[in-house]
Amino acid sequence: MSLIECKYCGKAVSSLAASCPHCGTPISGSSLTQGKVKLILAWFFGVLLLFSGLGNIFKDGNLYGVVFILMALILLPPSVKVIEKAIGFKLALKAKGFILGGLFVSIFIMSPTSKMAVKRPSSVSMHNSNPISNFKMSDIYKSISGKTDLQKEAYFYSKKGSRVVWQGKVLDADSNLISSGCYVDVKPDGAELLGSARLYVSCGIAGQLNKGEIVQFDGKIKGIADVLGIHVYFDSPEIKIMESKT
Question: Pick the residue with more confidence: 80 or 4?
Answer without folding.
Answer: 80
